[in-house]
Amino acid sequence: MTAYALIGLWTATSGHAAPVPDAQVAVGVPGFIGAAVTAAPLSPKPDADPWISTMHGDTDNANTSNHPGPLGTNPRIRSATGQIGQFLWHRDGRLTSGYLDVADMSSGLAAVDPATMGVLAQWFPPPGEQLNAVYMSLDADDAVLVNSKQGHIYRVRRTDPPVGPTFTMLRDLDVRAELQPGEQLLNSAYDSYGNIWFTTGAIPQVDANTPTTATIGYVTPDDRVHTIHLADQTEEKGITVHGATAYLLTAPAGATDHPGAVGTLSALRAGPQGPNTLWQERFDAGSGIAPGGFARGSGTTPTVLGDRYVGIVDNADRQVHLLIYRQDSGALICRVPLFTEGASYTDIGAIGYEENDRDSLVVLNGYHGPPLGVNPTAHDSAASVLAGINNGYNNMNGMSPGVTRIDVADGACSLAWQTPERIKSVPVLSTRTGLVYGYTQDPDAAAAGLYVWYFEAIDFRTGRVAWKIRAGVGGTYNDTYRPGSLGPDGTFYQSVTLGVVALADAP
Q: Which of 251, 236, 247, 235 is nearest to 283 (CA)?
């Protein structure tokens, strides 16, 4: 019997799933730290252009949601086993996600019941195609845009007739002929003219196939393909699109990968004959991948702040910097050192928020973060998986602490607050509550080998931790750097090793 079968993981299409089991016993650890709060709303974030739902919220990659979130009042926790993640919310509250079928480890899409977190329907690409669901997106017509590593870009529409959800492939764009030898597709994204931008690439510490070249291009609405090819550069992050402009990061590779290397941030637009570079700025990429890091260049996908700025974090040796550029010209506005020298890095996209004449970014420190840990396959025995589920990779104490907010106003940057919390998941800001929702663990328990995981709410205005609510215990509840998501009913969902755990306020 396989590991997943013995552990009793999800039923594929019943709409129900078994809860995620604790892998350790909670002894002497609180279930609730802090106190419930009242909502302190922020101004709503305007919809991005085009309207798109992504892992980071929208194509601005701002990790900011206009959905409400829990306040800590009569908290209700539920969980479901199953490899669903990268939540995409339809405008009417339906939920579509990436999906991994553990029977053969094939990747696909799933229609998910937000209440039970059970899978209602699935879609898989043709045999031999492996989806890169991390950077998929959902458009206003209920169609998912997702690419395969092998070179196809799919547009798949979800419909929900009375008999249940179904997926229909609307478009299959084959761009394999445009790729250079050894390349694989990493991501794809729409601009406001309906062009589909795409890049090749890989995440060095996750994917064994890390090329030393990159292809950047777009497919027009009438299926014409335009590309540019780069040597000694690679893509490691998603595409940020704001209107007609695509922002892309490249990292040093091949001959340019050396101590004191540089990466580039480019602003591109589709032209009649191919991508036009509006501006391109170089940044310090340091001497290598930082301890606990996953990327050779910037660890962050570009974050758009309204119509004025775009921000990234560099990979400078000793201490990374938040870099703020003007969208119209690429002029560098600020270069702000982050966290403590010698213990400074981030691999999680920043939260971005704009209100009146002030722009804000919340950045997480991930220096010396733990490895990904258990990643079982369909053929692993249950004994081998369970034997390692509570190993030391769960311990976050070796990761340097720090969550900080930097404000941009009147052309200058300033520190708004910094708190010594440790978060390695992808958090999200709710404009309806004014809280940043993340996921963390009890450091004292972790030091003793007990891994107790908590939902966490941080006041966006002050940086004060409002509360922590216990989600589960043991390696089964490790977030393994996965994103959190807010549903339209105020539930906060966090993907974990063996499924999803959700927090909501009970009536």
A: 251
Nearest to 336 by CA among 250, 404, 420, 264: 404
Per residue in 421-434, pLDDT tens?
Answer: 999 999 999 999 99
Distance CA 2, CA 48 (A): 44
- Cα distance between residue 28 and residue 87, in whole Å: 34
Confidence at residue 507, expressed as pLDDT on a 0 to 100 scale:
87
- Give the C-alpha separation, 208 to 162, whole Å: 44
Q: How many CB atoms lie within 10 A of CB 265?
A: 24
**Interval 178-212: pLDDT, tens:** 999 999 999 999 999 999 999 999 988 777 778 89
pTM higher than 0.85: yes
Give the DSSP letter of residue 6: H
| DSSP one-letter string for 363-425 | EE--TTPPP------TTSBHHHHHHHTTSGGG--TTSPP-EEEEEEETTEEEEEEEE-----S
Q: Which are the contacts of 458, defined by CB distance < 8 A and separation ≥ 6?
A: 403, 419, 421, 435, 436, 438, 464, 465, 466
Q: How confident is the model over 65-98, as pLDDT tens digits?
A: 999 999 999 999 999 998 898 999 999 999 999 9
Cβ-count burial of 2 within 10 angstroms (0-12 exposed, 13-18 middle, 19+ buried)? Answer: middle
From CA 30, how far away is CA 62, in angstroms rounded?
Answer: 32
Strand partners, 99: 84, 108
* Residues contacting 307, CB < 8 A, separation 6+: 242, 327
> Bridge-partner residues for 226, per DSSP?
218
Place of tokens 């990466």: 263
Structure tokens at 242: 């704001």
Report the relative pairing of strands 64-65 and 240-242 from DSSP bridges. Answer: unpaired
Query: Of 327, 339, 353, 376, which Cα lies nearest the Cα of 434?
Result: 353
284: β partners: 262
Question: 3-state SS of 271-338?
Answer: CCCCEEEEEEEEEEEECCCCCCCCCCCCCCCCEEECCCEEEEECCCCCCCEEEEEECCCCCEEEEEEC
* Backbone dihedral angles phi then psi of residue 325, each to the nearest 5 degrees: -120, 155
- Residue 451: both structure tokens together: 């891994």
Q: Which residues, at least 6 apart from 387, have a Cβ–Cβ distance to it below 8 Å?
A: none
Could you count the other beta carbons within 10 Å of the beta carbon of residue 414?
13
